What we know:
Layout: E1 2-6, H1 13-23, E2 28-33, E3 54-57, H2 65-68, E4 73-76, H3 83-88, H4 90-110, E5 115-121, H5 144-160, E6 166-172, E7 174-176, H6 187-198, E8 200-203, E9 210-215, H7 216-227, E10 237-242, E11 248-250, H8 251-261, E12 266-269, H9 285-290, H10 300-313, H11 328-337
Parallel strand pairs: 1-2, 1-4, 2-3, 4-5, 5-6, 6-10, 7-9, 8-12
Antiparallel strand pairs: 9-11
Amino acid sequence: MKILITGNLGYIGPIVGRYLKHRNPSDFVAGLDSGFFAHCLTAVSYSPEVCIDAQFFGDVRTIEESFLKGYDGIVHLAAVSNDPMGNKFEAVTDEINHKASVELARKAAAAGVKSFVFASSCSIYGFADGGPRKETDTLNPLTAYARSKVATEQGLEQLSASTNMTITSLRFSTACGMSDRIRLDLVLNDFVAGAITTGKITVLSDGSPWRPLIDVKDMARAIDWALTRPAGNGGKYLAVNIGRNDFNYQVKDIAQVVADVLPGTEISINVNAQPDKRSYKVDFLFSASWRRSHQPVVNLYQSATEIREGLTRMQFTDKNFRESDLIRLKVLEKHMAGNRINSNLEWINKTTTL
């Protein structure tokens, strides 16, 4: 099998590339990335891309159909990847996360790609009362990032009616866990970093909002399943929640797990905070029925422990890490300040396209 991973030089990509090559060493695995975060290595002294077969640099907005010929599967991770970036670059978020993603899938189908895996998000449920959200429930995206995921899912479902390509939208829980390029702008990762550097976790909300979490290693397992999913198993287009019912946590419980992993940590909760509207529990029983052998296995305690161990190997002591290269928005802002990328998130003076 020949597989292309877009956005592989980010947080999840190194884990996915390594997992796919380990699962089947005879597969050809390539990566395609703009390279904005390639330098943000953590707890490793080498490029993790030595584990895959080829690395390409390019913008998903300019990929030519001819480049995709010969690939059997595409794992589409490339995106403006969180709410802060989506809020700052709202138009670009729609351009990259939605329009370019659907166009990439169209070109992939025309090029003969058999399987297209889209990294969607449970954030599309927004604020949800009335029990855990199922795939058939109404979507309530509250941010530019979440809206872009909804629009892409809709575009992919429409595309599937006119192609032979199997398309799977994986609605991932909030990512967590150690990576060769860890992000510290995610709730569990942030809490562990704060506990290590200050001995304190500051919860800005009242701690009651719900979040489903999933370790990056389990995200890779789900992607592996989706890549080889036959159309008869769920349909030519399938959107599924990815996580586990017992991996829904309130934010205050996430903080407590980190305090258990790092004894002596103080937890500060803002009991007077305004309600956080980004609160949702998610039901994962539907996806479990399709992918019994690829269920999440890494629990929150294990994820927090591995982050602690990884940051300790780095001798991590930066109390101002929220201003560092481990926060994706800060990296983009530094690139812009250095006149390396423009406000459309393009490399300046770079003309090569794929």
